[in-house]
Amino acid sequence: MHMDYQVELRHYVYFMAVAEELHFRKAADKLFISQPGLSRQIKQMEELLAAQLFIRDKKKVSLTPAGHFLKQRVALLFKDIQDTKRQLQLIGTGDSGELRIGFLGSAMQNVVPDLLLRLKKRYPKIKTTLGERSNTDQVASILNDELDMGFVRLAKVPADLEMFTVYQDTFSLVLPENYPMLTRDYNGMQRFAQDDFILFPPEYSPHYYDTIMGICSDAGFKPKVSHESVHAQTIFRLVENNLGIAIVPTALQGGFQMRVKFIELKDIPQKASLSVIWKKDNPNPVLKNCIDLLLRVS
Fold first, then answer.
1. Helix axes of 9-21 and 35-49: crossing angle, nearest 10 degrees
2. From CA 100, how far away is CA 110, in angstroms rounded?
3. Which helix (H) or strand (E) holds 17?
4. d(CA 198, CA 101)
5. All structural domains of the chain with their residue ranges
6. CA of 292: how far to CAs of 61, 114, 136, 189, 192, in Å?
7. Which helix (H) or strand (E) holds 277?
8. Which of 79, 125, 147, 169 could be joined to 96 by an S-S link, Cβ 3.0–4.6 Å?
9. pLDDT tens digits, residue range 185-244?
10. Phi and psi of 211, rounded to 5°?
């Protein structure tokens, strides 16, 4: 085929405009070109691809099955071009660029702020974006390359991800301040069998939920769950108002001034592990530097 006659990137840009607007004049306006010019380009494209992409009648424009297929593929192609552009900007030494971090709320107590401070000191040009998300959300976003790393409480992750425990914490029982028991009289979980519990919902963190269930079943009871919330502050507020009691990672007792009391559960085998996860083949050099910083014992 003669070099002058092949589908070029601009053809795809024109095609996508028409495929999205399904209206030649609107698409031409959007592209700042003339409508006859746009029609000519699309016609040329259809000839080069030997496929009809649009059905045009007086009333409307619609996509043919071939057009639908091409629209999906071109959307992927454009996303790939965007990603490539982003990666090109990141390539280099990894001392500048962007890092997208997901985290569970409880990671904000110490692990994430500590990491951000160390990053800022070591790589001041790195830009970080943060998003609080559930465990499952973080895993999906890292697999889809929407996040670079996440802080989760999970027992295991898919094979494409790396996982490393960065913080191990004890659990603490959270009671209203006026609960009829002194903290020093605590002698095991069994005395709370009749209380209502406030928990994180199982879908937010199945592993965490199972761990709490395990703590109670070790004490010989299944907790009655009265309320569920993903936010520590909400959980503490409910406890404060005598709507139940809770078990949370001990790190969460900092940072909230509320009328609740904490009893650290030192006598149980269960621990609250926080892990960092990332995709094994993520090419972002910033990520590698960040993981090195996190896993290096400082």
1. 110
2. 18
3. helix 9-21
4. 28
5. 9-89, 94-166+274-295, 171-270
6. 54, 14, 24, 40, 43
7. strand 272-279
8. 125
9. 999 999 999 999 999 888 887 888 899 999 999 999 999 999 998 888 899 999 999 999
10. -65, -45
DSSP string, 98-145: EEEEEE-GGGGTTHHHHHHHHHHHH-TEEEEEEEE--HHHHHHHHHTT
CATH of 9-89, one of 1.10.10.10, 1.10.155.10, 3.40.50.1220, 3.40.640.10: 1.10.10.10
Q: What pLDDT was estimated at residue 298?
A: 45
Per-residue pLDDT tens over the stretch 104-130: 888 887 889 988 898 889 888 888 899
Least confident of 1-5, 175-179, 213-217, 224-228: 1-5
Supply the DSSP symbol for 183: G
The 8-class DSSP code of residue 51 comes to S
Burial tier of 72 (Cβ tally within 10 Å: 0-12, 13-18, 19+): exposed
Q: What would the two tokens of residue 73 be?
A: 């593929």
Mean of per-residue pLDDT scores for the chain: 89
Same fold: 94-166+274-295 with 171-270: yes
Annotation: CATH topology of 171-270? D-Maltodextrin-Binding Protein; domain 2 (3.40.190)
Selection from 79, 99, 102, 103 nearest residue 89 by Cα: 99
| Dist CA 238 CA 176 (whole Å) | 9
Q: Using CA of residue 242, residue 248, residue 251, residue 252, what is the dihedral sign?
A: negative
